[in-house]
Design goal:
The protein is mainly beta. It is built from 1 helix and 16 strands.
């Protein structure tokens, strides 16, 4: 992908080298490698540490080929590979495989947790509600995708979750 910082003429080439853990990503910008630790992601905003410095980013606009974002009051444009979202999804899934796996119950939408229906140790069947989210004044149930019992609830009532966040683990 190409990275263009709006107030500079230079165009940088960037690549994701690897994802080492759930929220650790190694990237290469030009000839320099950087470690990025994702601290918080919600909607179109994220917080991260890159080379021991804290940064905030907000996505201004994103489409298939280009993303405009603001990082620490500096606007940047990333011209990405046409299949970049799929590549990132697969890349992040490798790093999260151990925790996510087949046993993770994930949110389908971003929202606020308004009710935790199942408790640790509760026996559940496929389709049973585990957590209730509120998004855009609607309540949506996050349901179990298989039979089992709740090993762990990963959210608290009132917490905000992003799409695909893990809300519970089934064993």
């Amino acid at each position: 992908m190409e990275l263009k910082i709006d107030n500079l003429e230079e165009l940088f080439h960037a690549n994701i080298i690897q994802t080492a853990a759930r929220k650790l990503i190694f990237i290469k910008i030009g000839s320099q490698e950087h470690a990025i630790t994702l601290l918080k992601t919600s909607g179109n905003e994220l917080e991260f540490i890159m080379n021991n410095s804290y940064h905030q980013a907000k996505i201004i606009r994103s489409d298939t080929y280009e993303t405009k974002l603001m990082i620490d009051d500096t606007q940047m444009t990333i011209k990405k590979h046409p299949n970049m979202q799929e590549i990132l999804r697969k890349s992040m899934a490798v790093g999260e495989a151990a925790e996510r796996g087949e046993n993770a119950v994930t949110s389908q939408i971003p929202g606020r947790v308004v009710n935790i229906v199942a408790q640790t140790g509760t026996a559940i069947k496929k389709g049973d509600s585990v957590v209730i989210l509120e998004s855009m004044k609607m309540q949506v149930a996050v349901k179990a995708h298989k039979d089992g019992s709740i090993k762990q609830i990963k959210v608290k009532e009132g917490a905000t979750v992003a799409r695909n966040d893990i809300v519970a683990i089934i064993e």
